[in-house]
Write a structure and sequence with these properties.
Number of strands: 15
Helix content: 10-25%
Radius of gyration: 17 Å
CATH class: Alpha Beta
Number of helices: 8
Largest sheet: 3 strands, mixed
CATH superfamily: L-arginine/glycine Amidinotransferase, Chain A
Order of helices and strands: EHHEEEHEEEHEEEHEHEEHEHE
Structural class: alpha/beta
Number of domains: 1
Strand order of the largest sheet: 2-1-15
Distance between the termini: 37 Å
CATH architecture: 5-stranded Propeller
Shape: globular
Strand content: 15-25%
Length: 289
């Protein structure tokens, strides 16, 4: 089912989340497309469908509790990772940008997103590869794009950066190792001026750039980052969604005065994606200066 054409706008990662797109995990399975999923598969087995659906319902409940209208992308049997709706489309201050996914197992997802958005895109990625898990709209006029050379390569990152720069935005393209899948495995905003980040891995030049823009980082150890501890979703208004299993991160966030909604998401984090990966913000209220 397609969406009614709307002027979807996102100007920051931390404005109050008004509308969000998710996809039910009816055909989800672990696929060896990243280091985290390969490690999980090496232990044997596949997740139980009812358990997957139960965890996904917890996520949807948390989104609604946070005040968001939840929209559903119909899943397709041959596309098991459609549940990770972050990657196919990035919504910007000018509207949605259709991404270009890198892995063959996921490339077919673009068709469902074209139909759902009824072709209403600000831009369509056409250079290299670009995936939404690498794109962070930090605040109006400031963006960050990760470029591992895999899921998002330099050509894809620079194409999106050029579109934003032409709008007067400052954009940093940050290289990192493809081992970490997407930049949101290592970094996510929790609230205005506050992020969680794997400082064991991220270079000082990057965290210094963040600090220069007034963004402070709560440190997440490598081991916890590889369990998707950094992969959180700001709901705005002092609320954040973080997986229940990320106990250390959740304690830090609560110590900062944030309300943490913590659905159990272990079956999804085992496949390489947490709350940030499982959600595509469609509309956020603009933050007050």
């Amino acid at each position: 089912m397609s969406a009614t054409p709307q002027n979807w706008i996102v100007t920051s990662e931390t404005g109050r989340l008004a509308d969000v797109l998710v996809c039910a995990p009816d055909h989800y399975r672990w696929v060896p497309t990243n280091a985290i999923a390969r490690r999980t598969l090496a232990a044997g087995g596949q997740p139980d469908l009812q358990a997957l659906q139960s965890q996904h319902r917890e996520l949807v409940q948390a989104l609604r509790q946070g005040g968001a209208r939840v929209h559903h992308l119909p899943p397709e049997p041959h596309l098991p990772y459609m549940a990770y709706t972050r990657d196919q489309v990035v919504v910007t201050h000018r509207g949605p940008v259709l991404c270009q996914l890198e892995r063959p197992q996921r490339r077919g997802e673009y068709a469902a997103l074209i139909d759902w958005h009824q072709g209403q895109f600000w831009r369509k990625s056409s250079a290299g590869t670009l995936e939404g898990g690498d794109v962070h709209i930090l605040r109006p006029g400031l963006a960050l794009i990760g470029a591992s050379g895999g899921r998002t390569d330099e050509a894809g990152a620079e194409q999106l950066a050029s579109w934003l720069r032409a709008e007067g935005w400052e954009v940093r393209v940050e290289p990192f190792d493809e081992h970490f899948l997407h930049l949101d495995v290592l970094f996510c905003l929790a609230a205005p001026g506050l992020a969680v980040a794997c400082l064991d891995v991220l270079p000082e030049a990057f965290t210094g750039w963040l600090a220069g823009h007034g963004i402070r980082c709560l440190p997440v150890p490598y081991r916890e980052a590889m369990r998707l501890g950094c992969n959180i979703l700001s709901l705005g208004g002092g609320r954040v969604i973080s997986a229940r299993e990320s106990a250390g991160v959740n304690a830090m966030l609560r110590a900062e005065g944030l309300e943490v909604l913590d659905p159990a998401l272990s079956l999804f984090t085992a496949g390489g994606g947490g709350p940030h990966c499982l959600t595509c913000p469609l509309a956020r209220e603009e933050e007050m200066p």
